[in-house]
Amino acid sequence: MYKIREGKKEDLPRIFELIEELAIYEKAPEQVTNTVAMMEEDGFGPNPVYGFFVLIKEATQEIIGTAIYYYRYSTWKGRRLYLEDYIVTEKERGKGAGKLLFERVMKKSLEDNCTGMMWQVLDWNEPAINFYNKYNADIEEGWYNCHLQAEEIREMLN
Question: Which residue numbers delimit the N-acetyltransferase domain (predicted)?
Answer without folding.
Answer: 2-158
